[in-house]
Design brief:
alpha+beta, Thiol Ester Dehydrase, Chain A, seven-stranded antiparallel sheet, 2 helices
Length: 154
């Protein structure tokens, strides 16, 4: 029997993670399979503030913001699975490993970020994830990262 996959729209995302404009970098998370896998969606638009300086005349999404968008996707996945809406969960990067960029991400692109939990379980503070971000099926970034989940005390 297959389990129903969950989706987090922008309203639920904002109830799980504290990020807000201009640093909220994921618009929707789909195909959430517990805390195992999920896919984040980021619609890249020209009105994002980093495009003013990165780069004038040739806007390219900075690689660090792609990695951050992947981390936000992972946080939403875990937060959804652990029912963290409205519970003030914070997540902190601990490391970013094996990060490689393969394609430019530009305004008009739809960035899809597929995340997998490598290590972590309910109650754990330290989690490790792997992810691939792509545009139109073409890999833009691949990475592994470790994060600390600062879960509120019940």
């Amino acid at each position: 029997m297959s389990e129903t996959l969950q989706t987090a729209d922008i309203h639920l995302i904002q109830r799980i993670i504290p990020h807000r404009y201009p640093f909220l970098l994921v618009d929707k998370v789909i195909d959430i399979d517990g805390y195992k896998t999920a896919t984040g969606i980021k619609n890249v638009t020209m009105n994002e503030p980093h495009f003013q300086g990165h780069f004038p005349g040739k806007p390219i999404m900075p690689g660090v913001t792609i990695a951050e968008a992947m981390a936000q996707t992972a946080a939403v996945m875990v937060g959804t699975a652990l029912d963290m809406a409205d519970k003030n969960m914070l997540v902190y990067f601990m490391s970013i490993d094996k990060c490689k960029f393969r394609r430019m991400v530009v305004p008009g692109d739809r960035l899809e970020m597929r995340l997998t939990t490598v290590r972590g379980k309910p109650g754990a503070k330290v989690w490790k994830f792997s992810g691939v971000a792509s545009v139109d099926g073409e890999m833009a970034c691949e990475t592994e990262f470790t994060a600390m989940m600062d879960l509120p005390k019940e």
